[in-house]
Amino acid sequence: VTAKMTIDKEYKIGQIDERIYGSFIEHLGRAVYEGIYEPDHPSADEQGFRTDVIELVKQLRVPLVRYPGGNFVSGYNWEDGVGPVGDRPRRLELAWRTTETNQIGTNEFVAWAKKINAEVNMAVNLGTRGIDAARNLVEYCNHPSGSYWSDLRISHGYKDSHKIKTWCLGNEMDGHWQIGHKTADEYGRLAVETAKAMKWIDPTIELVACGSSNRHMATFAEWEATVLEHTYEHVDYISLHTYYGNRDNDLGNYLAQSMDMDHFIYSVISTADYIKAKKRSKKTINLSFDEWNVWFHSNEADKKIEPWSIAPPQLEDIYTFEDSLLVGSMLISMLKRADRLKIACLAQLVNVIAPIMTEKGGEAWKQTIFYPYMHASVFGRGNALHTIVASPKYDSKDFTDIPYLDTVSVHDEENETLTIFAVNRHQTDVLSLDADVRSFEGYKVIEHIVLENKDVKATNQYNRSNVTPHNNGNAQVDNGLLNAHLPKLSWNVIRLA
Ligand code: AHR
């Protein structure tokens, strides 16, 4: 199989907002407790955070972390999580039917985010609560001093304000499973009034309105249109969420699911621009894909969780090699819309549908999906480029014209590097790639990283890394023409400088 492409430095899609490599920590399962926080762990620092986990998160260069939910936020009283730890209440947590001890709250999480050099993307509760709790939280976090809530923060030991820039107006409010589920009109009205109050306290913040929980919701598109009718001039982003899975064990169809994501992104852009046209607005609403991943392996196990347990192992998907290919393709899909997609959060970061897993008292380890996420985050900074691709195609149960070659390129002008991310979806054949890179005069291949495996179901486990990348790809450039062999079913990172 052969494929051709042309990459030109002038064909810019747009500057990649680094927040596209964000992630997510929810008070769910063992994400917080036994994940990032385990005071008795040998590697715990003075605040009880696992430094082995911090080290792995730093390898991912995560610039932004969404917190504290997710479904959790729709029943959360943020006041429960601040002040002396000993005084904090235990609550029945209705979204995941567990007990929340509130040992970690806003201030501790902000402190943890600093340790990993990330910003916090804070979600407010628009399920059981509303304008008042949200504006108080902005005052508590962002107001310097001299008011009730800002002085309370200072009395809790945090003299400097947290300066949180990005905020989510609730979570998945279109879903019947959400605590305080609303219609689009109900949510739109609440979101706009909350947005106004939050921005009156701190006009520098940016707000994300809830879009649909996925593209297959019955209310999809109408939901976005109605919510934006209400909120357009007061918010900055509309959110998207999606999770995929290989439930039918149909690999060709599974690897094409990033095309559903392409379609989803395109549809939300179109809907946002329709409201822009209708309102004759000069403002453009951008996209925040603030939950995306593979999630299906743990579904059955989660039905057996004892209600009201504390930090049980929930949503602990163990990812296969094939999952890492789809995660790579999802990253490619998002980079292809770097012009409008400014924030994205891999859901989630530790233990809960996560690239990083921990053993209580033991080591932290990397799942298969860790690698494409890390490669994109570390090497995918700069301008995303339109790439002209001619690839043979196949059809599957739900998709037609699926290119075997899935790819995007990123040009870092400052460091003069070009990175090609590519997935070969072919299940039996090597894909021979010829790329015209003549506009990158003098560039040579410095590295061709490959993630491949004989067994599509191979997983990594505690103390056993079966799926790891190697640097033995054969890409080379001759006279402005790049040739590379992409092994069957592989994720490739070809770096030129
Ligand atoms: O990330 C897990 C859950 O998925 C989140 O809590 C929710 O927003 C979504 O349904």
Describe the structure.
The chain is α/β, with parallel strands linked by helices. The chain contains eleven helices and 23 strands. A nine-stranded mixed beta sheet has the order 20-23-18-17-14-1-19-22-21, with helices on one face. The radius of gyration is 22 Å and the shape is globular. It starts with a strand and ends with a strand. The site of alpha-L-arabinofuranose has 9 residues, from loops.
Helix fraction bin: 10-25%
Separation of termini? 27 Å
What ions, cofactors and ligands are bound? Answer: alpha-L-arabinofuranose
Tell me the strand percentage band.
Answer: 25-35%
Using brief descriptors, characterize the structure shown:
497 residues; nine-stranded mixed beta sheet; eight-stranded parallel β-barrel; 11 helices; globular; binds alpha-L-arabinofuranose
Question: SSE layout and pairings?
Answer:
Blueprint: E1 2-15, E2 22-24, H1 51-59, E3 64-67, E4 91-93, E5 98-100, H2 106-115, E6 119-124, H3 131-142, H4 148-155, E7 166-169, H5 184-201, E8 206-209, H6 222-231, E9 237-244, H7 251-255, H8 258-278, E10 286-294, H9 299-302, H10 321-335, E11 341-346, E12 356-358, E13 364-366, H11 370-379, E14 383-390, E15 393-394, E16 402-403, E17 405-412, E18 417-424, E19 431-436, E20 445-451, E21 476-478, E22 481-486, E23 490-496
Parallel strand pairs: 1-19, 2-3, 2-11, 3-6, 6-7, 7-8, 8-9, 9-10, 10-11
Antiparallel strand pairs: 1-14, 4-5, 12-13, 14-17, 15-16, 17-18, 18-23, 19-22, 20-23, 21-22
The structure holds alpha-L-arabinofuranose.
